[in-house]
Design a protein that fits this description.
With about 800 residues, the chain is mainly α. Helix content is about 55%, strand content about 0%.
Amino acid sequence: MAGRKQDPEQETKTAGVNPGYAVFQLSKALTASEEHEDPDVRKRGRERVSKWKAVLENILEGAADYGSRTPIAATPAWATLEVVTGGFATGELLAGGLLRDHEEELLKRFPESRKRQGRLSLNSYFLTDEGLAELCDRLKSGSYDMDLPEEGALMVAAWLADNGHSEKARELVDEISPFFSKLRFYPIPLDRPRSFGARVHVQDVGETVENLRKIGENMRILTQKEAVEVWAPFYDRLVALFLETVADGWPCRTYPDGWRERASALLDEYADLRKAHRLCAKPERADGNFALLREFLARCRKDASKLTGREVGRIRLILDGYVNKRGVPGSRQCTEARRRQRMDVRHPTHHEIAKVVIPRLEKLPGRDGIDDIEPLRQPVGKEESECFGLPEGTPIPESIGRKLERCLNETAQVLIERGLITSGDTLARVLPQTTSQIRAAGIRDPRLRGLYAAIYRAFRRRRSLLLLNLEKQVQIEELPWIAAIEGFRGENLSSRELARQTLEETALLVLSSFPHAVVPNKLLQEMLALARDASLDMPLVEELAADIFMGEFSPKFSESAKRAADFLDGSLYAVYYGIDCEEIRRIPEKKEKSKRFWFLRSKMEENNRFAPLCASRAGVSLGTWDPAINGMIIEQQQILTTQNLAALFSALDLADALRGQLSEMARHCFQWVCRRQQTKIDGWHGRLKMLKNTAYAWRQMIFFLSLLDRDEIAEFTDWAEKHFEEQSEEFRRRFRPALKGLMLAAQGRSLDSKSAASKGARRFLGWSKTGHWHRTPLPALGDQPGMMRNAAEKHTGNLASAASARLAKLLAGRGS
């Protein structure tokens, strides 16, 4: 870069971060922002352009240390960063930016000189006696909320000062005060307290209102309404006017008094109507009867004698067709036909009905859920009918009712049963509403307990950063204001038991509801927090990304594998995947080494045999950035650790709790694999993802089967063969080796033997370096790194060819 030199340390920091990914994302955003037909998508595209432009500039200028837990210089780890797809920080601080409405409202109290100081004045106000008293009042009433954890900092300071811990309060203020001019450290004021408990909601009332506002007009329905309500009556009058000229069965033979004046008025009326009603194209269709008849009317008004016999014949044909179809305009037959058409289109659109439902919601607290949504689903009332011009009694459509259900307060179990929580990721998003209360249970002071819970919920909304070198995401205990009150959290038996019970219920819920899917990382964070509060030693491991894997696993991975070896020794799982449980038990404990010199090989690594074992099982070597090879190594880690299944089942005794469901959970996995494998998926990347996810589900199925007795396994395999034979011939042909592998393992026979290979039995895995035996219509996985790169470059090139000028303009002035 011209005019700048990057030091070696900075080069080391940014190693492995490729600007191509950011260019690709920026190009996609640019295309969406300018070419997509949906204006909302274009708006979101413009927002993404701004964010990815910042990321790309950070990479090219070396302004961000991507891969570090503090990627933005002079920004502490506790500050909440704006993070985009892939874990890249844009450099924006979410607690900064433009003043929000409640900040602008508070600023109105101040004299003009202090208004100009913006956030500095607001933060300073809450350190005055008046401001501290206001915070204490809100603490007492609970009438506050926060979207970001920073917004709880000064409330913690207020509680400390109010409870005789002034020195701690001063230390906290000293730490955050350098950011007073940038960030807000005060909460969002509410008119009433928020309530949280065992019941949760997928989204709050405010979000539901915004979703309803996004329901746009259905152009097809609006076009149909215009055709029936505007143009059909006009066409009837047009036909009626020509019928007045019929004599001896032929039109244009006689013209009653005033006919030409009425024809002129009708044509002028058409011009006015067309200005206001442009949706329906039928009146302008050149070869359509409507446009032809209107053109003939204009010529008759001017000089009917110039019409040719052929043209008069065409007019006669149009009139005969009309009369034969619906009768003469104004007749009972015609009137009834038009009435039926109007009835067909008179029903209000979803857009119109949403306008009735929104005011119902706006009467409720915007940041809460709803205990009973039935009043919101009642038909349009009399006053609403008069206000919005809709028929009284109009029912609320099911699709709008489903949107309302998303803010229903219910247990997670009920929301899953109602299809509102559809994945572990959604469960992870709503769970903090409950776990925040449990995590705060050890705090005796009810005001501080509520404050801690609110900060916890806000903290859990933070997006994860891209991290390398076994770095860990920032933990809530690292927030200075949380650290200041950690000493007031007492551990007691009841809070530990509550945390364990909640953890067990959560694990049972996610495994029984989504048995085919691994527990997502976001949900693992909640489960780890509950495990700590329950004093459970549980080595839960995250799902790792193949594109940033650096050839090492932290100590908890080998510990998790050892737990799995103890739990599954001699089981179907160990036989199917060829696991030597004793070999895993002999892996020495790994010692932590300095992350500063992660790139150096030290003697300590000789004691870490887990990563080499995973690579050996995969048949590849460590020390490459090849995503396919990394994926194969990570998959073996997932097999040996069971990706948390063994850790959860052994620590929480889940086998007994799920005893009656394990067989059904295994069947669900098998059915899901069959269904997903036969789903039409466009794009090589989507198909590769499908292959990986079905291998995950297959592994979960093998684990559940391993907890059944021999007779139950035999019953499952009989069922699986019958279900398999019901699938398509193409799927049976390519997937039969996997089923044969399962059958052999169920008999206690190794899949690595020559006998198994001769029978065509194969172990189903999701990653491969040299083309998959599965023989799906996929590119060889062995070509994946180059394939991914080439496909990305091709796609990026296609996008960039249209966006290159825009990219150049955006990056102009950045330097070479």
